[in-house]
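S.,

Sequence below, as promised.
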Amino acid sequence: MADEPIPTSPQEPTHRVSTSGDIEVSTYLEIAQEREGVRGKSRKDGALSPPRHEAIAVLDFGSQYSRLIARRIREHHVYCEILPPDATREAVAHLDLRGIILSGGPASVYEEDAPLAPAWVFDAGVPVLGICYGMQLIAHQLGGKVSGESGSHAREYGFAVIRKNERSPLFDGLDDEMPVWMSHGDRIDATPPGFRSIAYSENSPIAAMANDAGIFGIQFHPEVAHTPQGSQMLRNFTHGVCGLRGTWTPGNFVAETVEHIRTQVGDGKVICALSGGVDSAVTAKLVHEAVGDQLTCIFVNNGLLRREEPERVRDVFQRSVGLKLVYVDATERFLSVLAGVTDPEEKRKRIGAEFIDVFEEQAGALGEVDFLAQGTLYPDVIESQTSDSSAAHKIKTHHNVGGLPDRMRLKLVEPLRFLFKDEVRLVGAELGMPPVVLNRQPFPGPGLAIRVIGDVTYDKLEVLRAADWIVMDEIKADGLYDKLWQSFAVLTDTRTVGVMGDQRTYQHVVAIRAVTSEDAMTADWARLPYDTLARISNRIVNEVASVNRVVYDITSKPPGTIEWE
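The prediction came back faster than expected:
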């Protein structure tokens, strides 16, 4: 048994990797699909297939770190895909497979329904690396002995030090003693025939093992920051053991993807819902590079955006990026459907339904359209692939990887389907996109509607826009914007008594939210400087009418969520 939560530290650097935040048309396709009754149908043809690069396959046995393994591999310019534990040999046939990684997982190899590695893994003729549960699987399936939590000293959680037993290409260039992060309840008591221990720790006499056929097992997690030399260890596996060259680069991706889109689209017309967020922006730029004016972007102002955001989006994408953009001001329509609605989920549903109506109207006005470009990212695909796996707890089903409603007879163009968020930003930089787009903090699809607690009105939105403007202004002035995953204001539904100008007031409370995160699955509240918070509070109560109190949210995720609704 493995994979206990790893503690996060607010001092660690943050990396933006999550797909949450950008307003994409795919965010709202779920509404249309529910209307049509087509949830779960197969995707329409036309979607990009992955490029054929030398690749690593990561079999996910339910580890909370599987995506992190993939990201670490990608950081070394190696293409990899995450597959469910029961993936068949045919599932990797499209890859130029050069190595396989078996992830950790919450199971024990002796549990009745414990997932096992497919037999083809061990006769594929490529190196194999088992991490934690993956190592235990190798030992269990190839004839070694694994002891369970009832075994003596089997449990090992947290920091440990491993020491090399012998030289190994996996540890090439690394220290003889290495701090690592352990997270397991089972351990290896005897290696399979032909294997030998190559490292040990105080509680694990076989903390790493190998054989001469290129199969390795390690009891710790090299993918996490708590294993300082772990990234180099993974590079030793991909480049040293598997012999990869590291050709998965933003430049190569752009060239190949542009050519692929050009071939896929031909003379067809493409539409793309543009939000100003990085996912939709890079998607649009790639498609534009491929087919030029065959692409039309549609930007819907739903009245739930931040101050001056509609103007900024139009200016950046029309002037700086050069896209053909249809702008629709649908403020009154959206505020009308939100009138009197206080339930957060109902807000989302109504916004989604109205967005689909507006988008379809605008698409219809363009005449014959053949393709819809959307910013589906690889984490969306991963979660959909693994949600039916017995090894992984179901996270969510992603509507944007499940197909389009029948009445939208469009084929999908999804150029980012195999990228993580940080890779999207690198691709955008390769395309020469401005930092104002690439470094934008995530913004929720329903916009400010879920940051106005309770019913949404124009007046409340104006109060929130003014407060949020001050938060952004001070965060940027102190050089904190790029260090935070998100930072914003919330207009609560609470009013408090105050004293302003010797008079009693009874006005709104504004909450400030700022978090650090790597992937938005978990987040820690940001330790903002007191001086920054003081200036934000002072300016809001002085500059924003009807607000007399400011509070700071110090709740992490979990137990809270990043957004309040």
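The domain at 54-241 is CATH 3.40.50.880 (Rossmann fold).

Coffee later?
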